[in-house]
Design brief:
homodimer, 731 residues, alpha+beta, 26 strands
Chain lengths: 731, 731
């Protein structure tokens, strides 16, 4: 796990793409119709919705079960296809248990069906917890027992669909969201389990009439580049959308995409062979850093599903090996795709790389691709044709082929949240743990991608070393801007401050930074408002608030960590953080300046690390200086108070606020400016402020108490009164 | 200072008794009238009050200055009479500075007169801070400079008395209280400075016409015992009292005093000589433990003011030594007085001891003593006669002599606060630091006690080794009940909990323990209310609240320290604690059950130390069990939850409340019952409660959030929501 490429996160696994019931050669007796499409949730009345969901559920549940007909015996359920994932018995039970868990969370049900199974089948692979995968930890039940359990769940869900109260529409906030989520979840696993079956030893799998590959292959076409004009892409799925979506799809995203060229076809096995034969896997100079690590660890010499036999190359399909279909798309992970591009770049001198997510949307848009409809799709998608890839020149989309379908296409873009992203309460870790810049988006779906997976708006991401029915299309274009940072801050203090500055109000106490600045402004009515300084700015909220009123606002804090929050927001990024709820449970939160009406301030603020007791000389000439909750955290408040007038213009205003919580860990006792007995009498901090500031300032407002609240957990808060004093520099 | 008898506290010093202008031989030309009595503050109009205070102030200020006429030269101001107190120059300035400091605090003035002097003259001796007394720390000014400073203060105070706005009456809450406090404070120092002069080397003092002793002595009378019938004593000074009082005098005190016998006379030098001659100072077996320490340290062989010369015993007075006046009262500290009593007891077989404070009041009442009035008093008191003691058989009071006046009388009683005690905001450490059971009350006043000191209601206390113009009267009576504990709890956590349970409300949040019990009662309408258990009772408030509704309420906590707070209150005592305000500044607080309407519950509660995870078997058969903020502090909440039904009757009710703030320092991670992801889904503490309690309980109320606030400082609070669930035992 330290090499970072040995497996994928539990979540990536959970949202990995699942296989569905294929219709061999397009004409299958057992399943009369095409696999059901993801339903329009805004369509029709309640009775219709029950009917639609019943059908969608049954079709999915049954298709998923049929996948396991490809296993030769019970042992094939227990043997792991790859070492870092559970055996297939787990996935057999898992999609059923998922329904139970989510239905419990939306309170559509109140009790479990099988406590033991539901504990066993709940958690997938977490790469941080290798011991989850000790076989000894699991006494797997027999497949027949799991089938019986699945039957119970099937009956349960059907009963709910038929009889549970239903308030239309079935949307994000509806308890029924659990049902559609369970179905779409199972469709993801339909695909990922098909990959596991493909990774199983040949002797553990068998051919199934429902899962027959396409028997169609020929000479690979010569690839070429197609120009794509510059243009804008836009995604804006909202809560009124007619189709189910995972959390990461919602929100608004708009981007201007420069003109670029893109390969007409997905890279075929034939085209990729050149790279293999050029020694692509033998020396690592075409590989990115992370890819080099993966290559060294795995000692791969060719794509994972390629099999070298004495009589030439074969390709491993789900249940068989076939002579290499050279015109089918190559299936690789991101590292292999990227190494190919780098090799191609050095061969051709062109700026070859993988497309970004936005470039993929641009191709989709210019190729005028349509969503899968009721009829058989014009793409090797949704199991409409067979249980395998197809030639890269079979499905044309505009000037391109396979813009969607056949195999997923790796992009250069790590998954990140759109503006307005929020987690769903019953599945808050679907995407958030993948906002780590190590999970890249794959687009377009494969032959087994069904339901939500086929939508333009869907966004699935995997660790870059992960295998899927996935290949790539290359583009020739310029450099890529990195995606905005989308890490969730999990450090407790940093998260608490993010919430304190930008988050919600508690106990009816207004935002402290904003209240301070509003109060300051009332004392500054006739005063110049050119430069303001926010000393001890922490996460920076007051700096932005000051920038609403001043020409320029500077935030300075001793902590460079805090500064990053302000800097990030000033860059137009969204602040993301987890809030401790209870014990280890957290909730996910994000805020941007736009949410707070502060988007216009970004060009007027700057942040800097600095020491309030020893300010750099350039920080001077201010009309206003704020020191909020600062003085009782300084190592020498006297130093600060004794020199601060030098940074203010005459007539300028200094605002101090503090709860005077003196602690020797911040301020040595001998540096306290008050809050002790002096000459036998109480000498408060305010007395000390007056003594230190009296020479250059007069008190023009206060003292008055301004409250603030810092959230520690869902139920525990610091509720503090900060004493505010406002001082005018008189000489 | 470790022996506990080498000096006295600053406060003891500050409230030590001060000398005033004596009228030698009762007829003094320079001071025409008797020393002014402490004024009636409820008498007359505003103009009269200004006149009265002007007179009282001037008389005091001038009398005090005249005391220093007894010093031979400037050096006598700088040489310390005793090693552990300041030289007299300090006390010369101190009483003036005190006016300035207290006037600043009530905002009758806004600026200091002399920053340097007022720093130098502010703090007396604190026995914990020996370095305060390094001579090197002080560059004392010349007495003439101090006199000039005193003249400034005199003018300031007179100007205020004549011109400052005055809202009648002058009472505890009036800013003018600072003026009367300053005067009474100076009268205390009149007495204590007279003691220092008496302790000065003879060559540093000189006779003054204003400070002449009585030249009257004869044969000491034979002492005898006078019977005092049983009776009640009562003190009840309140804020409407007509005379100034120090904080410790206010409140209500009533006591039944058993019959006893008391010596007719104070113990004379003659009577005490028997003890000295019997070897009383040579072997320590008559001395109490603390007295033994003092004796060993000082190697005293006779009373401190006795001087042994070749021609016999002499007595040191203020400025001279005179042949021993054997009929004057002996002057000793508590240890010497107590040793005499113990010796007398062993000699006579009678239960000889010092009187308690209450016994002194009883003697005062049966002797029908009157307060000092406008006329010359019938006691050697208030400087009405001379600057020395007088024969013990000179002033008769009923069947006794010298019930008041002549010398102070040591009692057995350490000073403690009466019910209703509170500190005064401008002098919050006048008495509180002496509530340590090491400061014993002295009663009756001496020849130099003036003003408040002469009142029956006054209560002065000193360390037991301290010297004053003080002696004793012995009584024969039974054992003494110890006084109620009057320590101020200064431990931060203990104090915070005392305030949390019994103190004020903050942010409008009602008392948590009371709210919990009120909520519980609403679910118990038709249920039996015999026995209630408050598990994790901490300071015990909920136990008392339960006792309002149940026949019996038991409070159990793991912490014996917490239990003591409940036990103390159940014993009818007052809980006293300091609240952190800001840095080192604190405020003093006290609460009793009577303040909270809970006085009637004391006979229904009991407190016990115990472990909620391993309860002793006798704690069973309850109708109601409360576990407030407990489960997230247990080392094994599962153990507690799994066994608690055994302690409840069937149909009985368990109320849990907790913010679920799980911390591994209290509960090892593996013992948490929830607040983590379980099988991939959020498993809250409430889920855990349901899992653990489901077998024996049903949830009948909640979950609902109940807020509480814990005050950390004047401006910093924990504001928490506790989740309440109520469970009925069903089997």
């Amino acid at each position: 796990m330290h090499t970072g490429h040995s497996t994928l996160r539990k979540t990536a696994e959970s949202n990995s793409i699942a296989p569905a019931m294929a219709k061999p050669q397009g004409d299958l007796k057992t399943l009369q119709t095409l696999i059901t499409r993801t339903p329009n949730l805004r369509d029709g009345d309640e009775a219709n919705m029950r009917r639609v969901l019943r059908n969608y559920f049954l079709n999915t549940f049954t298709t998923y079960e049929s996948l396991f007909e490809c296993l030769v015996n019970d042992q094939a359920f227990y043997t792991k296809p790859i070492s870092l994932r559970h055996p297939l018995i787990f996935y057999y039970g898992h999609t059923a248990t998922f329904f139970v868990n989510k239905l419990l969370l939306t309170r559509m049900i109140n009790t479990r069906i099988n406590q033991r199974f539901e504990s066993m089948f709940a958690v997938g692979v977490d790469e941080m917890s290798w011991d989850d995968l000790n076989d000894g930890n699991y006494q797997w039940p027999k497949p027949a027992e799991v089938k019986a359990y699945r039957d119970q769940v099937r009956a349960l869900v059907l009963n709910l669909i038929d009889n549970a109260p239903l308030q239309m529409p079935v949307d994000w906030n509806n308890p029924w969201w659990a049902i559609i989520m369970g179905i779409e979840h199972e469709r993801i696993h339909l695909e990922t389990s098909s990959v596991l079956i493909r990774q199983h030893k040949l002797e553990l799998v068998k051919s199934s009439p429902h899962w027959q590959p396409l028997r169609e292959s020929g000479r690979a076409p010569q690839n070429s580049l197609v120009k794509v004009a510059a243009g804008q892409v836009r995604l804006a799925k909202d809560k009124t959308s007619e189709h189910y979506g995972w959390d990461n799809e919602y929100g608004v995203h708009e981007a201007d995409v420069n003109a670029f060229e893109a390969a007409k076809f997905l890279v075929s096995n034939q085209e990729y062979l050149q790279f293999v034969e050029a020694g692509g896997y033998l020396n690592s100079h075409n590989w990115e850093e992370e890819g080099k690590g993966w290559l060294a660890f795995t000692k791969a010499q060719h794509p994972t599903f390629w099999v070298k036999k004495t009589n030439g190359w074969y390709l491993r399909l789900m249940t068989e090996e076939v002579a290499m279909p050279w015109d089918w798309p190559v299936e690789v992970n991101y590292h292999e795709a990227k190494a190919f591009c780098n090799w191609k770049k050095s061969e051709t001198g062109l700026s070859v790389r993988l497309p970004t997510e936005d470039e993929w949307y641009r191709i989709y848009d210019v190729a005028d691709v349509k969503e899968v409809g009721a009829e058989k799709s014009n793409a090797n998608l949704h199991l409409d044709y067979a249980a395998s890839s197809s030639p890269v020149n079979k499905f044309a989309h505009g000037d391109f082929y396979d813009v969607v379908g056949n195999v997923w296409q790796w992009t250069e873009t790590p998954i990140y949240p759109f503006d307005g992203f929020e987690v769903h309460s019953i599945y808050d870790d679907f995407t958030t743990p993948t906002f780590d810049e190590r999970h890249n988006l794959i687009k377009g779906g494969s032959w087994i991608s069904c339901g939500n997976e086929t939508l333009r708006s869907s966004r699935y991401a995997f660790r870059r070393h992960f295998f899927q029915h996935a290949g790539f299309r290359y583009v020739v274009s310029g450099d890529i801007k990195p995606v905005p940072s989308s890490h969730y801050e999990t450090d407790k203090l940093m998260s608490e401050y993010a919430e304190f500055h930008y988050g919600d109000e508690y106990f009816g106490v207004a935002n402290f930074s904003k209240s301070l600045v509003d109060l300051a402004i009332t004392t500054l009515i006739d005063k110049p408002k050119r430069k303001a300084l926010d000393l001890g700015c922490a996460s920076g909220r007051a700096t932005f608030e000051l920038a609403k009123h001043f020409d320029q606002a500077t935030g300075i804090d001793f902590s460079a960590r805090f500064i990053t929050q302000g800097v990030q927001l000033a860059n137009g990024e969204t602040l993301r953080y987890t809030l401790a709820d209870e014990g280890e449970l957290v909730s996910y939160k994000s805020r941007s300046l736009a949410d707070l009406g502060l988007a216009e301030t970004t060009n007027k603020v700057e942040f800097s690390q600095g020491d309030a007791c020893n300010l750099k000389s350039q920080f001077t000439g201010y009309d206003f200086i704020l020191a909020a909750n600062l003085i009782d955290r300084l190592y020498s408040p006297a130093k600060f108070l004794g020199a601060i007038h030098e940074r203010l213009n005459i007539g300028g205003v200094l605002m101090l606020s503090s709860p005077y919580t003196w602690l020797t860990e911040h301020t040595p006792r001998e540096e306290w400016i008050g809050a002790f007995k002096k000459d036998g009498e109480s000498f408060t901090t305010l007395d000390g402020l007056q003594a230190h500031l009296g020479k250059h300032f007069r008190l023009i407002k206060g003292p008055q108490e301004l409250p603030f609240v810092i959230r520690e957990t869902k139920r525990k808060f610091q509720h503090t009164l900060s004493e505010v004093t406002v001082w005018e520099r008189i000489n």
